[in-house]
Design goal:
Layout: H1 2-11, E1 20-24, H2 30-37, E2 42-46, H3 51-62, E3 67-71, E4 75-77, H4 82-89, E5 95-103, E6 113-114, H5 119-126, H6 138-141, E7 151-153, E8 155-156, E9 160-164, H7 165-171, H8 183-193, E10 197-208, H9 220-238, H10 241-265, H11 268-286
Parallel strand pairs: 1-2, 5-10
Antiparallel strand pairs: 3-9, 4-10, 5-9, 6-8, 7-10
Length: 287
C-alpha cells in the first residue's frame, strides 16, 4: 500500500528524490522492501514506532522544503495534476494549509471538511439540527456540507495535507503528544490561532481508503475510545473550562441519541462504538 501511494505521487510528477517514506518502527523487513522498490526516494527507518505525528515530523526534518505534503499511506492521487493544484493554492499568502477533495475507493465523496467543536457547534449537533443549516454555512457550523467548491474552512481531516514551510516551522509540525488521532484537528486549530487560513481545494483529488492502519490493531470500539479521548482532550486544551464542559457534554448527548438510533436499527457493532466514544468524552468531562 505504501509503495502504491508513492508510485501515484511519482506518476503525478513529484520527483522521487523529494519524497520521504517513513517506516515507523516496522520489524518485518518493510524498510528493506521500500528501499529496494523505491531506490530514488529517501527511506527513513525509525528504530521504534513514534506515532503518526512524530513520524511526520521526522520525515519533514529529513528533507527541508518550501512546503510539506504529509500523507497517509492509504491515500493515492486520483486526478492527474493534483499535487500541482495543491502547490498553486499556496499562491494565496494567507493560506497555511491546503487540503484536497477525498474520495472513497468506489470514488464516492468522502466528506472531510468539518467545523471545530465549539459550544455552539456541539449544541446544534446535539439538538439534531445540523442538516437544517444552509449549505453556505455548513463548513463552519455543521458536518453536512456538499464539498462542491473550493473555500476557506475551519477544520479538515488530515489524510492529505499540504502545509506551507513557514507555517510548519511556526507550528513546530504536529503535536507529538498525540501519537494517533486528533493530530489533524490540533494542527488546524493551532494554524488558525497563528493567523493562517486553511483552504479546501476541490481541483485536487485523492482516493483515501481510511483506517487501513488502525483496523489492523484496534476494534471499532477501541478506535472510537481513542478518538473520543483525543478529541475531548483537545477541546479542554483549546476552550475555556465552561466552553469545554458545554462542548463535551453536548457531544456526549449527541452520541447518546445516535447510539439509540443504531440500537433501534439492530446495528449493535455501531452502537458499541458510539458507546465507547461517549464514555471517552464523559471521562474528559469529569477531568
Amino acid at each position: 500500500m505504501t509503495i502504491r501511494c508513492v508510485r501515484a505521487l511519482l506518476d503525478d510528477g513529484v520527483p522521487p528524490q523529494r519524497i520521504v517514506v517513513v517506516d515507523n518502527g516496522s520489524t518485518d523487513g518493510s524498510a528493506d522492501r521500500l528501499r529496494a522498490e523505491l531506490p530514488a526516494c529517501v527511506v527513513l527507518a525509525l528504530p521504534e514506532n513514534v506515532g503518526y505525528a512524530g513520524a511526520a515530523n521526522r520525515g519533514a526534518a529529513a528533507l527541508a522544503g518550501d512546503a510539506y505534503l504529509v500523507m497517509n499511506n492509504d491515500a493515492f492521487v486520483h486526478v492527474p495534476g493534483s499535487v500541482r493544484r495543491l502547490w498553486d493554492a499556496l499562491s494565496d499568502p494567507s493560506v497555511g494549509i491546503v487540503a484536497p477533495r477525498l474520495r472513497n475507493e468506489d470514488h464516492t465523496l468522502q466528506p472531510t471538511v468539518r467545523p471545530l467543536p465549539t459550544p455552539g457547534v456541539a449544541l446544534l449537533r446535539a439538538a439534531g439540527l445540523g442538516r437544517a443549516v444552509p449549505n453556505s454555512l455548513q463548513p463552519n457550523w455543521s458536518h453536512h456540507w456538499d464539498h462542491a467548491e473550493s473555500r476557506y474552512v475551519r477544520a479538515v481531516d488530515g489524510a492529505v495535507f499540504l502545509v506551507r514551510g513557514r507555517t510548519w516551522d511556526e507550528l513546530g509540525g504536529y503535536n507529538e503528544a498525540r501519537r494517533m488521532y486528533g493530530e489533524d484537528s490540533d494542527l488546524c486549530w493551532r494554524t488558525q490561532r497563528l493567523g493562517w487560513r486553511i483552504l479546501y481545494e476541490t481541483g485536487a483529488e485523492f482516493v483515501h481508503l481510511g483506517n487501513a492502519t488502525g483496523s489492523r490493531r484496534w476494534t471499532n470500539a477501541q478506535r472510537a475510545t481513542l478518538i473520543g479521548g483525543e478529541e475531548s482532550k483537545l477541546i479542554r486544551e483549546q476552550l475555556s473550562s465552561a466552553g469545554a464542559a458545554i462542548s463535551i457534554g453536548a457531544t456526549a448527548g449527541y452520541l447518546t441519541w445516535r447510539r439509540a438510533l443504531y440500537l433501534a436499527r439492530g446495528d449493535r457493532p455501531a452502537a458499541a462504538a458510539l458507546r465507547a466514544e461517549r464514555s471517552a468524552y464523559l471521562s474528559g468531562l469529569r477531568a
